[in-house]
Amino acid sequence: MSDETRPLRTAAVIPAAGRGVRLGPGAPKALRALNGTPMLVHAVRAMAASRAVSLVVVVAPADGVGEVKRLLDEHALPSRTDYLVVPGGDARQESVRLGLEALPEGIDIVLVHDAARPLVPVDTVDAVVEAVRDGAVAVVPALPLADTVKEVEPTAPGEPEPVVATPERARLRAVQTPQGFDHDTLVNAHATIALAGDGATDDAGMVERLGAPVVVVPGHEEAFKVTRPLDLVLAEAVLARRRANDGF
Questions:
Q1: Treating both helix axes as pointing N-terminal to C-terminal, what angle do 92-101 and 183-195 enclose, rounded to 10 degrees?
Q2: pTM exceeding 0.70
């Protein structure tokens, strides 16, 4: 089969090496339980729910690879999807790069997904994959902002901050994950931006710095990031609603 006719293969990389200190003391954020199941397992299931995804690479804390492997083995995961756990680095950018290096030959599309977004619906995952298949080199799901946003001049913690601008809200989007990429474009971004010593807050931002186009597809309100204790309460409520409505 020629490269032109071979189906595009998609893998997901989930960086899960962070501690998540804003959730308070205890287990790493990705291992916090939602409805009795670790957030990381929910996130892996969310990626594997897409029939486009053939491999999920979990990037675990360097000292927690064995624990994460056991965790995935203990929970039911779709059998059609392969799973791989590799050690991560000190920073998210390094962990994603290590996840990329672990991918086998023949992966065309890479999804990068936050372990702290455990409830992203499969339709959102599929929409990102489809946009990359249609030719986009970088795709992010995102939602319009409900709040007015102010750009400020940072001051000392607790001190008033002068407003310097009010961006036009209609042009702003709150970005979610999974973010989808042409494999070679993302690898190039991590090699180039990392070598320049100039990181970014997300992978799409790294691709932007290469001068490559990034496009947005509609996100979903349930793809929110679990960062603070109140987010855990909201996530439990979403799971309860899914069980009631869908038998999830």
A1: 130
A2: yes
